[in-house]
From TrEMBL:
RES domain: residues covered: 38-188
Pfam family, one: RES
Domain of life where this protein originates: Bacteria
Name under which the protein is recorded: RES family NAD+ phosphorylase
């Protein structure tokens, strides 16, 4: 439902889901940002940014993660990597992984999020699958809807969960820093730095089922 403004009120009751303490999260991010730190950088209102980022006029810190390594990698790195016309593997440019890593996190406490997993979940917030399937060109609109949903689920909603667009069998989440304690997520094992030989091997292993690999 792009280019359609949110209604005056929620049409239904948003679905609450609890991610229990101990849930594993996998986060692909810039190495300069600490693995468990919430991102403080807002997206522009109209350009760049992610699906549910904060913006300058709607500030909050946030953290995206996958509930499986593949979801984190595919969402972060395979967004615009096309399949090869000759049937060969998709080649991920090395510029796409420059100074990036995957951090392994664990929830230190239960977290309550809005589920955007099903058609019924989406209908409860006045939306359909467009909200979680739209491509990057429409992120200014998905962000606007995300802010609207966030406002109407205050204070209990600590984030959203939805199906990964690029690995529908897995889930991805955004957590809101202003509604989570500072120790809500903790690092549970050493991060994988994609700029190392071991990191490249790990990444290629995750990418292989998606007919993709790092470019030579």
């Amino acid at each position: 439902m792009p280019n359609v403004p949110p209604p005056a009120a929620l049409p239904g009751t948003p679905t609450k889901v609890t991610l229990p303490e101990g849930t594993s999260l996998f986060r692909v991010h810039a190495s300069a940002l600490a693995g468990a730190a919430f991102n403080p950088v807002p997206a522009g209102r109209l350009y760049g940014g992610g699906r549910f980022d904060a913006t300058e006029d709607r500030p909050y810190t946030y953290l995206y993660a996958g509930l499986a390594p593949a979801a984190a990698v595919c969402e972060s790195l395979l967004r615009s990597v096309p399949f090869a016309a000759d049937g060969g593997p998709r080649l991920l440019p090395r510029t796409g992984i420059a100074r990036k890593r995957c951090t392994f996190l664990r929830l230190a406490t239960d977290v309550t999020v809005v589920s955007l997993m099903s058609g019924a979940d989406l209908a409860a917030v006045g939306q359909d699958s467009w909200l979680v399937q739209a491509e990057a060109a429409e992120y200014p609109w998905t962000r606007n809807w995300g802010h609207w949903i966030r406002d109407r689920t205050e204070p209990w909603a600590q984030g959203f969960v939805w199906p990964s667009k690029r690995e529908p069998a897995d889930r991805v989440v955004i957590l809101f820093g202003d509604r989570c304690a500072t120790d809500t997520v903790t690092e549970c094992e050493p991060a994988v730095d994609f700029g190392t030989p071991d990191g490249e091997d790990w990444l290629n292993t995750v990418l292989a089922p998606y007919h993709a690999r790092l470019a030579p």
